Amino acid sequence: MGSRFDVTVVAENEDQGNNFIDIAVNEISRIEKLISSWDPNSQTSEINRNAGIKPVVVDDELFQLISRCIKISKLTNGAFDISYASMDKVWFFDGSMTEMPSDEAIKNSVSKVGYQNIILDETKKSVFLKLEGMKIGFGAIGKGYAADKAKALLQAKGVTAGIVNASGDLNAWGTQPDGNDWMVAIVNPLNKNKVFSWMPVHNSAVVTSGNYEKYVKFNNVLYTHIIDPRTGYPATGILSATIFTKTAELADALATSIFVMGIDTGLDFVNQLNGVECIIVDANNKVITSNNITLKPNKD
Ligand code: ADP
Ligand code: MG
């Protein structure tokens, strides 16, 4: 998935541990083959190739994933949208941009984006992208989904404790061998060696979105690599968003959504959801938390 995965398991011995880790790696590769929009042989690529042409029958697993994505789009009012992949590239976050794209170019860039045009047929298990040139991509949810699936498979194999960490999108269960909770560090986005706080994770997921390395600045506004699929403008105001909830899939999608929504709407949104909490670091490096999180400052 173009990302590093770290798998931790508690096992009887090293051989058994390695064996479990292999199982997780195979599961992650299997999912990549299904959902990658880069791999021309994936079912996702087939859906994209047939945009505006015809529905494509897919595995139930992919069908269900897409249908959950659409539910998240509805929940977030379109802040999260897997058809973001239909966007024309008008923003570049590699330092190559010298001026802002025109309003018109930005508006046109999202003309094919819209989850309302992803048509699912529950009985046939088919997916149809209504507009020619439309595409879907799982960049904002795939790593979380893969982490959940690898965890579920390891649990089914009897692994009592572990962590699947997809480059900061993690799902943990059980405890460390000494009985202590797994702990996750909330780091300063501007200095990853500096820990703001440590949080215990009990059988749940923690996902951080924040690629502050990828941004562009115009008129003193920092535009980040996550783009609002409704307007074509990049998100501003947030350096990183961390979501705590049961599954890494939902956490992944919501972390991206919070970026798009911005601080006020994002916090309001999270505070209305049961079992979801967040920590946001704003553009001034200030830490803001949802209602049910109390941060203990790091003592290091
Ligand atoms: P990161 O780990 O890079 O911080 P995210 O989980 O926030 O990542 O996902 C960012 C990726 O998601 C982008 O590179 C792009 O592929 C995709 N994406 C960007 N904006 C959206 C959006 N509004 N809805 C769905 N996917 C998006
Ligand atoms: Mg995400």
TrEMBL record:
Q: Can you tell which superkingdom this protein's organism belongs to?
A: Bacteria
Single annotated GO MF: transferase activity
Cofactors? Mg(2+)
EC annotation from Swiss-Prot or TrEMBL: 2.7.1.180
Disulfide bond: is it a keyword of this entry? no
Q: Is Transcription among this UniProt entry's keywords?
A: no
Which reaction equations make up its catalytic activity?
A: L-threonyl-[protein] + FAD = FMN-L-threonyl-[protein] + AMP + H(+)
Sorted keywords for this record are: FAD, Flavoprotein, Magnesium, Metal-binding, Transferase
* Record Pfam families: ApbE
> Which family is it part of?
Belongs to the ApbE family.
Q: Give the protein name, as stated in the record.
A: FAD:protein FMN transferase
Native source organism of the sequence: Mariniflexile aquimaris
